[in-house]
What we know:
The chain has helices at residues 17-40, 46-52, 56-87, 92-106, 109-117, 141-144, 147-173, 176-184, 189-219, 231-242, 245-274, 297-303; strands spanning 125-129, 135-140. The chain is mostly helical. The protein has a domain at 64-129 and 137-230: Orthogonal Bundle (MetI-like fold). The chain has a two-stranded antiparallel ribbon with strand order 1-2. Strand 1 and strand 2 form a beta hairpin. This is Putative amino acid ABC transporter permease protein. Belongs to the binding-protein-dependent transport system permease family. It comes from Gordonia amarae NBRC 15530. One of its GO terms (biological process) is transmembrane transport.
Amino acid sequence: MDSPDQHLFSVDVPRSTARRALPWAVLAVVVGFVVYKAARNPHFGWSDVGSYLFNGKILEGLMGTLELTVVSAVISLLLGALIVGIGRMGGVGRAIAGTYVWIFRAVPLMVQLVLWFNVALIVPRLSIPLPGGGHIFDESTNNLVSAFTAAILGLALHESAYVAEILRGGLLAVPAGQYRAAAAMGMTAPQAYRYVIGPEVIRVTVPALTNQLIGLLKATATVAFIGGADLLTKATQIYEQNFKTIPLLLVATIWYVVLVAAATLVQHALERRFSTAPGTPKTPAKVTETTELDTIPALQEQRL
């Protein structure tokens, strides 16, 4: 027989409207006070913030930040998937993948950026020699690895280690029975990953991957340390000339908030798109003979 204590915390206790509204009212007062004090503070230089918000250099830096984010995200996703594939080979492959993830997660992003920016001190020239003499390719490393290139290398390699772990966790979240069921239905490995394993991995990893993307977007600000043509770099270049440090930093802050807000909306949209349907149990989907699976060649052959 159930004890009354078992249902103690599941009882829906009515709360008055005043009690529900009180925390929101307090929060509104605090936020309003902070906004009022900030608006009245002349040291923020709000007029300068407005004049520089759509400045040409700032917009150029904004596009640079977006480019850094998108390119680094694509490369890190591809590298992460490759590392997971190598790790699933077992033996030496697992050791290689584990070492890669360990190194690029252990070294701070700022250190990686500085190392790539100064890679010419280690390898002055990059060349591909011919057996009979001469070179197919020979170029100074300084000409090849600009600040922007160093930023891409640092961000992509650093993020790929985290992406690899997210994807590996997604694969581990798929029950072993799904693999056996796919094999029992005559699916090849590519078919199994396309129709059974892949959708499960996507559903599990989308929240973590999109959150990692937002983190990458903010991490592009570290590129300012090597002058990588990002938003913060452009803002820094302007205030080093006119000494309007706070207004320019506020301009950069506003744009970062806008970018992260947009990325968060995309994150929520993707989560809704790949989440399970409302009202369905939050358990891994089982392999069933559905209309979609009827299109798989292996299943069509079995039914002939």
